[in-house]
Amino acid sequence: MMLLGIFMATIVIGMLYYVAGVGETITYRERMQDAVDSGAFAGSLLYARAMNVIVLLNMAIASVFAVAVAAYAAIFLIIGAALSAWSSCSIPWNIPACIAAACLTCSGIPSACDNADSKRDIARDVARNANNAANAIATATRIAAIGASAEIISMRYTPPVSIGAGIGAAMPLDDESPSRVCDEILTFSGPSGFFSLPPDSPYPATALIAYQEARRIANDCSAASYVDRAGGLATAFLWTYLSCYMIRGDVDNRTKKIRDGVRMGGNEFQFRTFAMAGEDHMPFEPNQERVELVTWGRTDSGGLGSIMGFLENANRFSVAQAEYYYDGDDDRGLWTWRLKWRSRLRRFRLTDGGGAGGCPPFMSGVCDQLQRLVIH
User: Fold this and answer.
1) Chain segment 91-109, per-residue pLDDT in tens
2) CA distances (Å), 306 to each of 17, 303, 334, 374, in order?
3) Of 267, 288, 235, 311, nearest to 81 (Cα)?
4) For the chain, how are helix, strand and coil distributed in percent, rounded to 5?
5) What local confidence, expressed as pLDDT, does residue 93 receive?
């Protein structure tokens, strides 16, 4: 009974060591995968946030430019008011109209021109600075994403990770010419894409600003009524439309767009991470020692041993992939004009198509096999 008990105890101890080894291996693999998943998602999230900031910069350019457009539309309204006053001028029967016409011509129109030029200069400065900021953000985001992913993987998941890195492509952005600014201003729908009432509707809001600005300038000549006689708010829509396209060149090449030929889900939007475990923190060698203990020191496992050795080395590495993407079905021209950029994890792939298209021809078979082996 004692001999049977000894052999039974050896089997039980071996089973316990096996269960412990499996648990340690699972924990090790989970932590390695958590490391690269966290790094990949953090990197792609920085890209998504940067894209939303660039969207905000485009909107800022459009908002400031809309004020300049309204100021130029006000010039046309003042000219119309002056013409209306001159048409009513009659000496000696309607001297007030003559005075208003002369005031609008000599004071109102120059004042409106100075006001428009001032706002136009501000719009140019804002557009130039916003474009420079967008370029800086695009460059800094790639560096920040690589640094953040490496910090998360290598520092927060050590042990078992010893080395971690992330890599992402440059943001696929180009300067937009002609800019979509006028398309955004001359619309009855807000950034959400649905019909909305002023002030969320850019076109009516801009026309209303032009009308109010014209009345303010004309009021200095006591001639605000002539703005309404010349068409008032109704013609403000026409002058706003013409003014926007008249000075649109000021913001061409200042707003950003997604580079032509780039498709959503392509390699340009992918962020991949890599981690390698330190040998001191891998569970395989302690597990092997336990197995040797319960097998009375036996270490030779034949061909299986070489396979296990390869798998142990392969398990030192973990990879993950995430992407930033536009979460909507809008026209691609709106991808840099709507705050719909998100981030998500994806199954790891060497290429965006899932095949070996990105590999050299002589390695296509190897890449295909690697695509099938990597399951996360």
Assistant:
1) 777 888 899 999 999 999 9
2) 22, 6, 55, 21
3) 235
4) 65, 10, 25
5) 74
CA dihedral of residues 2, 6, 7, 10 (deg, nearest 10): 160
Beta bridge partners, 272, equal: 167, 321
CA 194 – CA 100 distance, rounded (Å)? 43
Question: Would you kindly state where each structural domain of the chain is located, as residue ranges?
Answer: 2-373
DSSP H or E stretch at residue 343: strand 341-346
Calculated CA dihedral for residues 57, 61, 63, 69, nearest 10 degrees: -170
With bands split at pLDDT 50, 70 and 90, how would you rate the model's confidence at 43? very high
The pair of structure tokens assigned to 27 is: 């924990």
Amino acid letter, 189: S
HSE value, Cβ hemisphere, 13 Å, CA-based, for 116: 26
Query: Are 247 and 333 spatial neighbours (Cβ–Cβ below 8 Å)?
Result: no
The one-letter code for the residue type at 171 is: M
- Which residue in this structure is represented by tokens 């350019």? 61
Report the first-to-last Cα separation within the chain, whole angstroms. Answer: 50
Q: How far is it, in rounded angstroms, from Cα 237 to Cα 198?
A: 14
Cβ neighbours for 153, distance < 8 A, ≥ 6 positions apart: 35, 36, 38, 39, 161, 164, 165, 166, 273, 275
